[in-house]
Structures are given as C-alpha cells and as structure tokens.
Write a structure and sequence with these properties.
Layout lengths: L2 H4 L9 H24 L6 H18 L11 H21 L3 H7 L2 H13 L1 H10 L2 H15 L2 H9 L1 H23 L13 H21 L19 H37 L15
Helix pairs in contact: 2-3, 2-5, 3-4, 4-10, 4-12, 8-10, 8-11, 9-10, 11-12
Length: 288
C-alpha cells in the first residue's frame, strides 16, 4: 500500500454500532441454532450456520472493517462494498435460514409479546406478500442500484454521513429482497415457477451491465469527489473508475450465473426423480 493510502487509515475508527449489531446478530442466531440442533439435528445444518456467519462477516467487512476508510477515496473500494452488501452477504444470510434460529434465539417473551402478534396481523401479512413478490424484489434491487449511482445522489451520500449510512442500509435491504425468491428460505414459498428464476437473474444483470459499461468506457471521471481525493493504490481517478466498473461487471456476471446454474440443475434433477423420460422412438417399439 502506498503512502497516500496509508494516510487514510488513521482517520478510521471502529464503528461501535455496527460491531455491536454484528455481535448481537451472531449471538442470537448461534443461541437459537444450538437449541434447534440439540432437538432437531438435521433441521438447520452446520452448513447453514456457516453460511449465516459468512454473510454477517461480509456485512462487517463492507461497513465495519478498515475497508470503510477508503470508500470516499477509491470508487473500487466503494463498489466492493456495494457488491458485498447486495450480492454476496444477502444470499449467504438467507441460505442460513435465519428465521428459525433467530426466533429460537430471542427471549421467548419478546417472541410471544412482540414478534408473534406482529407476524400474525393482517397488515403485516399483506405487506410481506407485496415486498416478497419476485417482481417487487427485482424492481427494488434495480432502483437501489441505479438510484444510488446517479452522480448527484452518489455525491450527496459521500458528503453526508447519515445519507451514506442510508445508502448502505438500502443496499443490504434490497439485496435481501432480491435474493429472497432465489434462495426461498423458510418460511417462504415460491411465487413464480422455478424455471423463471434463471431469467430473473439474467434480467438483473442488464442494469449492472449498462452501468458498468458506462463507467468503463466513459472518458471522464463521473463522480467528481474522487478527483480531489488522495490517490489510492497507485491508480488515477479514471483508472480507479474503470477498475470499479470492471469489478462490478465480472463479479455480477459470475455471482448471478452460479445460482442460475444451480437452479437449472435442481430442475433437471427433479425431472429425473419424477421419472419424466423422453418419448420413445419408433425403433424402440420394434421387438428384436
């Protein structure tokens, strides 16, 4: 790391609220997982525990680690944060089936007096039905991605700390919504035929591709704040912008392709399990 980048680190201090929230989430989930595992060992496996912890670690890396110190001097770092919050941490958290362990890990008085009545209310059910619909999930992620990368909005978030925190929170929320129909954690049910999920993922790559292509091939720095920021990692502001766009382009393509392939393989496996075979040819009907 070059000297100008090293000079950024002394300005960073651990975010107490983020660290406390991360530790609380881990503690509640782990407490609930231990209780469930003791009674139903196969209900929430160790793999799901590891997945949840990896997702929480991704959130901490994005907004609780020293990486946060570089987001206003390097667009590449800022883009890495966005990828962690929208594309990497959310599916890992949802693969951990968080509802079951978190409900078991919370004090039962809170579950009985607060969580239970809220989750059973018709208002909550109607809101949940809307926000977990795949169309809404896709649009929420798309609007979050495009909206926060509009230059004026992006610059405002860099200048105002509260808006920057809101940006990160909305990316995480949009990421959890986006991956909900793909992962379908308990207690969710499929709202669309499963074969539409690869198309859902492919459609989500399009706005990312457009934004990435614009940042890669633009011959000027789009976000003016980085022109006056300290040089990070030996890159000029334009090179940093191109690197950030390339990171987004490649990462989104790969990270969306993997679940699309997994879902496709699941459907093919299900087809074979149910004994769906190809039509017999004329020759197969002829006795030897």
């Amino acid at each position: 790391m070059i000297a100008s980048s090293q000079s950024v680190l002394p300005s960073w201090s651990p975010p107490i609220l983020v660290d406390a929230s991360v530790l609380l989430a881990i503690s509640v989930y782990a407490r609930g997982w231990i209780r469930l595992h003791a009674t139903f060992p196969k209900l929430v496996s160790t793999v799901r525990l590891a997945s949840f912890l990896a997702g929480i670690a991704g959130i901490w890396l994005a907004i609780g680690s020293p990486l946060e110190a570089f987001d206003d001097v390097s667009l590449t770092v800022h883009m890495a944060q966005h990828l962690l919050l929208m594309t990497i941490a959310p599916p890992l958290i949802l693969l951990g089936w968080p509802a079951l362990p978190l409900l078991r890990g919370l004090p039962q008085s809170i579950v009985r007096l607060v969580v239970g009545p809220i989750s059973r209310s018709e208002f909550f059910k109607s809101i949940a039905g809307v926000v977990t619909h795949p169309a809404f999930c896709w649009l929420a992620a798309t609007f979050a991605l495009v909206g926060w990368h509009v230059p004026g909005v992006f610059e405002a978030a860099l200048r105002r700390e509260w808006l920057h925190h809101l940006e990160h929170a909305s990316f995480l929320a949009a990421g959890l919504l986006f991956w909900w129909p793909v992962v379908q954690p308990w207690p969710s049910v499929g709202r669309w035929p499963r074969w539409l999920i690869p198309l859902y993922l492919f459609g989500a790559t399009l706005p990312c591709d457009v934004l990435s292509a614009f940042l890669v091939f633009c011959d000027r720095v789009v976000y003016a704040s980085y022109l006056s920021a300290p040089s990070a990692f030996g890159l000029t502001p334009l090179q940093d912008q191109q690197c950030a766009a390339a990171l987004m382009w490649v990462s989104v393509t790969v990270l969306f392709l993997i679940p699309a392939l997994v879902v496709t393989m699941e459907m093919l496996s299900l087809r074979e399990t149910h004994g769906i075979k190809e039509p017999r040819t004329k020759e197969q009907f002829v006795r030897p």
